[in-house]
From TrEMBL, chain A:
The chain crosses the membrane at residues 12-36, 56-77, 97-120, 127-148, 187-209, 218-237, 326-350, 374-394, 427-449. One of its GO terms (molecular function) is electron transfer activity. It is found in: Cell inner membrane; Cell membrane. It holds the Pfam family Cyt_bd_oxida_I. This is Cytochrome bd-I ubiquinol oxidase subunit 1 apoprotein. It is a multi-pass membrane protein. One of its GO terms (biological process) is aerobic electron transport chain. The keyword Methyltransferase does not apply.
UniProtKB/TrEMBL annotation, chain B:
This is Cytochrome bd-I ubiquinol oxidase subunit 2 apoprotein. One of its GO terms (biological process) is aerobic electron transport chain. InterPro entries: Cyt-d_oxidase_su2. The keyword Cell membrane applies. It is a multi-pass membrane protein. GO terms for cellular component: cytochrome complex; plasma membrane. The chain crosses the membrane at residues 59-78, 84-103, 124-145, 151-176, 196-215, 227-248, 260-282, 302-327. Belongs to the cytochrome ubiquinol oxidase subunit 2 family. The keyword Cell membrane applies. Coiled coil: none annotated. It is found in: Cell membrane. Pfam families: Cyt_bd_oxida_II.
């Protein structure tokens, strides 16, 4: 019982740390590229609105980056303090992948971020642009290597086991393991969607409190267009990822669908309460045949149920059903809300320009077209990407249980023999700190937005209503 | 101490131990100065605090990354040792992490928060810096004690915790001497003088305790002819301390000449102390329990990491020099432009 307590507490602690951590890379990966976009637009057009957008978001980037660095340091220690068995068993494979993550990426970001944040007036324009590019590139590479390792844990290949230790036999197979391309694309899109809704939401907030500056218009349009363009791609990619999971981790898919019995023409469970004791769902609303159709593209296709993953002696080899089932539904529902809202926003902005003002070359969207309810809906959706991303990760990671590395080692085999009360104490402290920091983080973004909306952002950019810039005060470099 | 370069199972662990050692040293010097600036924070006026923040602003992210590299190398190259050391140091590691989180985010928040919250973030910046330094000193003490957990080793670790925190304040002061001017620089000179004792006592305590704890290290130090290999370290350290003491009584020099010297001398001093420790513990990664050869990953895996490291580490060093060059000169208030 002692080890079980330590196990579940260590798992919660790891989940808490990595959930808190992932929030910030999710923002910095795509925000790096969005900043690069702003920077390039400024270089192309010399239009100060792009630089104003850059200056605003670079502060959010700095804050997110700092949160990512400090919570990332926590992650690198967690392996040793709580999960020594992981590296002892698969260290020969996880080691190089983690090393490349730190080497190629982390440093590229951390070194160049100084120039990116504070160097605009100290270095030539091309170097500042290069630094912005390298920071974005670095965050992406960072994501790539960590996704490679994570995917390998889901779909391991290219290794052999000798005396209980994994040894690499084919690095190409390890890196390009079957689930990696799908997971990487899915995560990159998740990051871009998170940022597009963050940018749109914060800009909508600034608009609602009376900010009519040209940079707010540019930012709002960037966010909405990016979100509307990517969400259909993400839904398609999610479907592909699901098919990949069905092939390699059928127990996870069965838990996501809440499917207990192997059957042909399996229904899609829209709502239900999975009951693991009775091994059935209660209060079910379902559409016949649809799950089979989605996953096999055949209304009568066969799907494997959870009961297939119980050993003869009663050992359960499938994940806990309810958390996977619910996380999956939260993710899908958030994605649908993103789809509806971004396309509705796009339509309203397009209609205003097309019907009331006529087309102006290069301007086919008018922010004025957005009705208040839509703007107000965009504000809380600023953090919808976080909800969807976390729900998605819970689906896939809880869905991997009881395995840590699928088919190679269970989570229980890796846990450290640290007394449960000690783990509980540190867990509670982490949770308290994370809650406070999250509160402060969102509070500071709201404060920065208010400050910028009042034009107290260091640079007064005076706008008249036609969208033409009035006085642009550019303060000289210190 | 050189390995057999024809045998990968011999030289690869050695190469990684060297690389990890280098990362730790760079970390201790670089994050040492910015942690030290954090510890000195409450002694300054609000305007001076902004300057102090400005003096470390463009660097601290990259500085802390050396810790990630060091721990990362321990994790990937010596996985057995990573588990053993970090499980033994569970609580101090946790305290250090909380400290790093607090100071890292306080640093960013204080620059962006409204004025009435700034005092809270200032306090957290100081607390986080101090917690981090104390926790690292505590870990250093326990490591020297062979990771034994008794009241005596805890007492020793508490002492090294205090000394390291004061030592970080010292190197932080020397950094500020270089990066600031006027009243703040004068204060920094005084802080440097007043915290030099932490360095002396810290080096002294570790030097006295290390051979006492392990007969192996005792033999390595105090037998003939080994004693002559080690002799330059204490002699050079003593000279450096005397030199620093003289400099700090006379600084700042006219026209602010050679303001970088105390920091350079402090770096040299830290390096010497570190080399002494490395000499003592080699080839063990967990003192007297696990050597780098026993703890190392498979040579094939190490080789793959090494290829990446050979490309990236020189580039990182080059970029670091570039970043320190771009942000050279006296610190100003931090601005995002």
């Amino acid at each position: 019982m002692e080890t079980l307590d330590t196990l579940i507490l260590s798992r919660i602690q790891f989940a808490a740390n990595i959930s808190f951590h992932i929030l910030f890379p999710t923002i910095t990966i795509a925000l790096g590229w969005v900043l690069f976009f702003f920077r390039v637009r400024f270089a192309q057009t010399a239009d100060e609105k792009w630089m104003a957008a850059y200056r605003f978001w670079v502060k959010v980037f700095a804050l997110s980056f700092a949160m990512g660095v400090v919570s990332g340091i926590t992650m690198s220690f967690q392996f040793g303090t709580n999960w020594p068995g992981f590296m002892e068993t698969v260290g020969n494979i996880a080691g190089p992948l983690l090393a490349y993550e730190v080497l190629t990426a982390f440093f590229l970001e951390a070194v160049f971020i100084g120039i990116m944040l504070f160097g605009f007036s100290r270095v030539p324009g091309w170097l500042h642009m290069l630094a912005t590019f390298l920071v974005a590139f670095g965050t992406t590479m960072s994501a790539f290597w960590i996704i490679v390792l994570n995917s390998w844990m889901h779909t391991p290949q290219g290794f052999e086991m000798i005396d209980g230790q994994a040894f690499a036999t084919d690095w190409w197979a390890i890196i390009f393991n079957p689930s990696m391309p799908y997971r990487f694309a899915h995560m990159m899109l998740a990051s871009f969607l998170t940022v597009s809704f963050l940018v749109a939401g914060v800009s909508a907030f600034r608009w609602l409190i009376g900010d009519r500056s040209r940079e707010v218009r540019a930012m709002l349009k960037t966010g909405v267009v990016l979100g509307a363009a990517l969400i259909p791609v993400q839904i398609f990619m999610g479907d592909l990822h699901g098919l990949n999971t069905k092939e390699y981790q059928p127990a996870k898919v069965a838990a996501m669908e809440g499917l207990w019995e192997t059957q042909e023409g399996a229904p899609l469970v829209l709502f239900g309460i999975p009951d693991e004791e009775a091994r059935t769902n209660r209060a079910v609303i379902e559409i016949p045949g649809l799950a089979s159709f989605i996953l096999t593209h055949d209304w009568n296709g066969e799907l494997r149920g959870l009961n297939d993953f119980v050993a003869e002696d009663g050992t359960v080899l499938h994940p806990p059903v309810a958390p996977v089932f619910w996380s999956f539904r939260v993710m899908v529902a958030t994605g649908m809300a993103m789809l509806v809202l971004s396309w509705a926003s796009l339509w309203f902005m397009w209609r205003r320009r097309a019907l009331h003002e006529g087309r102006i070359a290069g301007h086919w969207l008018a922010v004025e077209g957005l009705p208040k309810p839509i703007l107000w809906a965009l504000v809380p959706m600023a953090f919808s990407g976080w909800v969807a991303t976390l729900a998605g990760w819970y689906t896939t990671e809880i869905g991997r249980q009881p395995w840590l590395v699928h088919g190679v080692m269970t989570t229980e085999m890796a846990v450290a023999d640290v007394p449960a009360p000690l783990v509980l104490g540190t867990l509670i402290t982490y949770l308290a700190i994370y809650a406070a920091l999250l509160f402060a983080y969102i509070g500071v973004i709201a404060y920065l937005a208010r400050k910028a909306a009042r034009g107290e952002d260091g640079r007064a950019i005076d706008m008249d209503h036609s969208g033409k810039a009035g006085v642009i005060a550019l303060s000289p470099a210190e | 101490m050189l390995p057999d370069f024809t045998n990968p199972a011999d030289w690869l662990p050695w190469a990684f131990a060297s690389l990890m050692g280098l990362s730790i040293l760079i970390y201790v010097v670089l994050d040492g100065f910015d942690l030290g600036v954090g510890i000195l924070f409450p002694l300054a006026t609000p305007a001076e605090q902004d300057r102090m923040i400005g003096s470390i602003g463009p660097f601290w992210d990259a500085n802390e990354t050396w810790l990630v590299l060091a721990v990362g190398l321990l994790l990937v190259a010596f996985p057995q040792a990573h588990g053993m050391i970090l499980t033994a140091l569970y609580l101090p590691v946790f305290i250090m992490l909380v400290g790093l989180i607090l100071r890292g985010v306080a640093f960013e928040f204080r620059a962006k928060a409204r004025d009435r919250h700034k005092r809270l973030w200032n306090r957290l910046f100081f607390t986080g810096s101090l917690m981090t330094a104390l926790a690292q000193g505590f870990m250093l003490g326990l490591y020297v004690m062979g990771l034994e957990q008794t009241w005596a080793t805890y007492a020793f670790a508490t002492l090294t915790a205090v000394f390291l925190a004061v030592g970080y304040s010292f190197i932080g002061s020397t950094w500020l001497i270089h990066k600031t001017e006027g009243a703040l620089q004068l204060k920094s000179v005084r802080w440097g003088r007043e915290s030099l004792w932490g360095v002396i006592l810290g080096i002294g305590a570790v030097s006295l305790a290390t051979p006492m704890v392990s007969t192996r290290i005792f033999d390595k130090w105090l037998t003939f002819p080994e004693i002559f290999y080690l002799a330059p370290l204490p002699i050079l350290s003593g000279l450096l301390i005397l030199w620093l003491w003289r400099m700090l009584r006379a600084m700042p020099y006219a026209e602010d000449r050679r303001s970088w010297l105390p920091f350079a001398a402090a770096t040299a001093l830290f390096t010497l102390a570190y080399l002494g420790m490395a000499y003592s513990f080699y080839p063990y990664v967990v003192p007297d329990r696990l050597t780098i050869y026993e703890a190392a990953s498979a040579p094939e895996s190490l080789f793959i990491i090494l290829i990446g490291a050979c490309f990236v580490v020189p580039v990182i060093l080059g970029y670091s020099v570039l970043a320190y060059t771009i942000f050279r000169g006296k610190a100003t208030e931090l601005r995002y432009d």
